[in-house]
Amino acid sequence: MTKDGAGTDQIPGLDDLPRTSPKKPEKPGKARKKGARRPADELPVARVAVDMSLPHLDRPFDYQVPAELSDGVVPGCRVRVRFAGQLVDGFVLERVAESDHAGKLLFLERVTSSERVLTPEVAALVREVADRYAGTFADVLRLAVPPRHARVEAEPAAVVDGAELSGDGGPGVWGEYPAGASFLSALADGRAPRAVWTALPGPGWTEAIARAVAVTLRAGRGALVVVADGRDAARVDAALKTELGEGLHVVLTAELGPAERYRRWLALLRGTARAVVGTRAAMFAPVADLGLVVLWDDGDDVHAEPHAPYPHARDVLALRAHRAGAAAIIGGFSRTTDATQLVESGWAHALAADRAQIRAVMPRVRYVGEDGQLARDAAARSARLPNLAFEAARRALEEGPVLVQVPRRGYVPAVACARCRTPAQCVACQGPLSLPSSHAAPYCRWCGRIAGDWKCPECGFVHLRALVVGAKRTAEELGRAFPGVPVRTSGGDAVLERVGSERALVVATPGAEPPAEDGYCAALLLDGWVLLGRPHLRAGEETLRRWMNAASLVRPQGPVVVAADGSLPVVQALVRWDPVTFAERELAERREVGFPPAARMASLTASPGAVRELLADVRLPEGAEVLGPVPVPSGPGADAQEKERALVRVPRDGGHALARALKEAQGVRSARKATETVRVQIDPLELI
């Protein structure tokens, strides 16, 4: 656990934003002395963040406050202003006595709502995130503050009854970690420890998070928990209800709908709720007096925001913890290289169990292809369900459910010519063909066109073979291999929430594995080559994360069979249940070749002319290296326009300067009214 304020040099740009304390209100009935500062609601000028995403206009603008609106114009409220001849939305950042603008100021048009929806803490965080990712304040603000619902806003705020927290306040499952009790003690004392947590396999991670949140609330501060999806949010919610009781926390997920989501968001803003668990968007939730941030399974790609400026929840929560002086837990069953970078930099400390405890609760992992197994089953290396996996499933089904993880959903998501193995593509859009069932004609996954008359363009053959087998086809095969055993699928739109203790085969895609009541009796991890063979910088890291998440659902010492080459480091990490050593090795290798997170990189994507114009305008920091540009493969629904991508690489300490330079160059293009916008992504997940 780090001391308060440790590691500030690892997050550049945090210290250049002012920290202001709230002003004490004047006592009623007392006249203000001559020359004394006037209350904010009497100051004539409002500084407004206008909802305008143009980079060259990314700054606040001053507006005159009409006397009739003065009482409602408060910092953080929503207003309507006239900008470039149009009425646009905005947020009041502050009120000041006079403006630096030499010309005449326009008046505010109206106050949309006097609710202080943009707190000073969140406003400062939004500014920092925008600068870190070469984005604009308006773009980040749309992610941070949800749309207004007037009916919900008019509802009376709930009254906090001040009930005592339930629970015993002890370490609970944190006692299984050597540093767990000291971490909780630091939280209870109001300090700000930061930990990268490698969780033990099993369902105890929800209880551990709930206990940390409870200790934080007992210390008088708030807590924020971000998870990957609504299913994980529901599990943490159940643990929090057990630990905290009702009414002290809220859940924020997309499934709630806009009105209910805004209602719960207001509960946090108004102090009715003191803690929140939610998906990616909850990272900006207005928790009062924030004392703890938690990010679970930080390697999941859903934590990366798909909208500009594409911030990652891990970076946002790290910035927020640093700004608020809050504790931080970044955890998961596996370890990412980004989290390892935080440990090596000193920003956080590792929090893990000792090897004896890990061995007691980990599953027994075997891989297909070891010498003894090959002697008994010579076809095991190429078989999809070799004898080792078949026998492990057969024995485990005598006791309860068995989990089968397959990388792809659907029936046969990729097909090829049965003679020459050329991948089958659509003649209309060149998209990949797939089979939805055993009796259906192939169709294009991009445009949906039926390709019943497909013929191989290379050899003229008309028959197809499977390149990748999906979950539905796997379930069909297992049904024939284990007659009389129920086979259930989980993935896509049909995700199982939970599995009972009865004997059944559960076929699931990564991330859709439902927990079993008493844990699975065994797990089969099939088609490992599909995950490991992806042309992706993080293929090994992501594969280990998906395998460990599935294997963590198996009972202690239960069998897990992985269909992959046992000589690979990622397979050995799974067998030893040692994600930390694997992540440290990955980070060292990336440092040698200059890949993130050891270095900072920016991706620039647009038409060839626009990319080259931006590279010509940008004043890159010292040590920057430009890679490319190279053509970008077209995807589903892509325009006919050719696109290229260039990568800009700088040392890790040059990331802030790189973002600033790219934003300035974007501003130059914006001021010129360039017709095309260049997509700028800082440290994108996909580089290869």
Main features:
4 domains; 19 helices; GIY-YIG endonuclease; 29% helix; 688 residues
Give an overview in words.
The chain has about 700 residues and is α/β, with parallel strands linked by helices. The protein has four domains: about 10-15 and about 35-145, 3-Layer(aba) Sandwich (GIY-YIG endonuclease); about 170-360, Rossmann fold (3-Layer(aba) Sandwich); about 360-590, Rossmann fold; about 600-680, Alpha-Beta Plaits, CATH 3.30.70. Strands 8-9-7-10-11-6-12 form a seven-stranded parallel sheet, with helices on both faces. It has a six-stranded parallel sheet with strand order 13-22-21-14-20-19, with helices on both faces. Strands 2-1-4-3-5 form a five-stranded antiparallel sheet, with no helix packed on it. A hairpin with a 2-residue loop joins strand 3 (about 80-85) and strand 4. The chain starts with about 45 loop residues before the first strand and ends in a 6-residue tail after the last strand. Residues about 1-35 and about 370-385 have low confidence and may be disordered. Keywords: ATP-binding, DNA replication, DNA-binding, Metal-binding, Nucleotide-binding, Primosome, Zinc. InterPro entries: P-loop_NTPase, PriA, PriA_3primeBD, PriA_3primeBD_sf. This is Probable replication restart protein PriA. Component of the replication restart primosome. Its cofactor is Zn(2+).
- The number of helical elements comes to 19
Poorly predicted residue ranges:
1-36, 370-383
Report the count of strand segments: 26
How many structural domains can be distinguished in the coordinates? 4
Separation of the first and last Cα atoms:
35 Å
- What would CATH call the class of the largest domain? Alpha Beta
Question: How large, in whole angstroms, is the Cα Rg?
Answer: 28 Å
Q: If you consult CATH, what is the topology of the largest domain? A: Rossmann fold
What portion of residues belong to β-strands? 15-25%
- What share of residues is helical? 25-40%
Coarse morphology: globular
SS-based structural class?
alpha/beta
What order do the strands of the largest sheet run in, or round the barrel if closed?
8-9-7-10-11-6-12
CATH architecture of the largest domain: 3-Layer(aba) Sandwich
Mean pLDDT across residues: 86
Sheet with the most strands? 7 strands, parallel
